[in-house]
Design goal:
Immunoglobulin-like; 2 domains; alpha/beta
Length: 307
């Protein structure tokens, strides 16, 4: 009798057993994995085989490591690495997503509660019942090679192997990612008025430094009247977002000429998004008209770009 039916039956049983295998109660994941609260952890991880955590990065790079807890038990977590690597632990809070991103930004995991807010913890331990997060900041001066550490999880220890390559990333210069914000959001979070006071600018400066340390730059497309106070934030970039008053052709011309004056000699190109994602034919015609007025007022590359 042919053995093929038996082989097929055994394979089906094996696959069924694998499908019934529960998700691990504790899983270690990289920073690119974002799961909704209550969603089962993946059984496999790109950086953890259940025994050893394996990381790889360049000098000057910051890696993200999260420990996800699925059984609801509270655990104390500590990630230790040599002095050439600075580890910062964070507690994690979730936010409710009511309206997911559109298809323009790729597939979405849908509405739900997602971990999103990181709060640095004092000391070396993170106490968590759902998620603990760590920044692994590799020193710019670290020697390439193999580094060893440990991940401690409530009495259990897992070896951590970090491979540092010879490549070097200088995050503070020429960041590739623009992160949009509004001063009023920072003002509200810190109980300040939305006025360009030294207190508000100091708070904004803290956020700018945080984002620069992670390879991004924080910038708001503000009107010319609010730009000068934030000029110190504009460094080591090729482009900077600005706002153009589109209430009339005269207002557009005024702002374009003012931006050209403010950016003259900086080597940085301002850009504006006067109409964001025009959907209807009328909105597209309006966006085109604004672009034409900006061009007549002296805008366009290399002075003032319009997106």
């Amino acid at each position: 009798m042919s053995s093929l039916p038996w082989v097929s039956c055994l394979l089906s049983l094996a696959l069924a057993a694998a499908g019934c295998k529960p998700a691990p109660s504790v899983q270690v994941l990289g920073e690119s994995t974002r799961l909704a609260d209550g969603e089962a952890s993946p059984r496999q991880s790109a950086i953890f085989d259940g025994k050893v955590v394996r990381l790889r990065g360049a000098r000057g790079e910051t890696l993200g490591v999260s420990l996800r807890i699925s059984d609801g038990q509270t655990r104390r977590v500590r990630l230790q690495l040599p002095d050439a690597v600075r580890v910062t632990g964070f507690s994690v809070r979730s936010l409710d997503v009511k309206e997911p991103s559109t298809d323009m930004y790729g597939p979405s995991r849908g509405a739900g509660s997602y971990p999103d807010v990181l709060t640095p913890v004092a000391g070396a331990d993170v106490t968590a019942s759902r998620l603990a997060y760590f920044d692994v900041e590799i020193s710019d001066a670290a020697l390439p090679g193999h580094y060893q550490g440990e991940l401690h999880v409530s009495g259990r220890s897992f070896p951590v192997e970090l491979e540092v390559s010879a490549a070097r990333i200088t995050l503070g210069r020429e960041p590739l990612v623009w992160v949009f914000y509004l001063p009023r959001e920072i003002a509200r979070a810190h109980g300040l008025p939305d006025v360009d006071t030294p207190e508000l600018l100091a708070q904004e400066g803290r956020y700018h430094e945080l984002f620069r340390a992670h390879g991004a730059f924080l910038a708001a497309d503000l009107p010319p009247s609010r730009f000068e106070a934030r000029r110190p934030f504009m460094h080591d970039v090729a482009y900077w977002p600005v706002a153009v008053d589109t209430s009339s052709d005269a207002a557009i011309e005024h702002d374009v000429q003012r931006w050209l004056e403010l950016f003259r000699g900086t080597g940085i190109t301002p850009f504006a998004i006067p109409v964001d994602e025009p959907q209807s034919a009328d909105a597209r015609r309006h966006a085109r008209h604004i672009a034409e007025v900006i061009r007549r007022a002296g805008g366009g590359r290399p002075g003032l770009c319009v997106r």
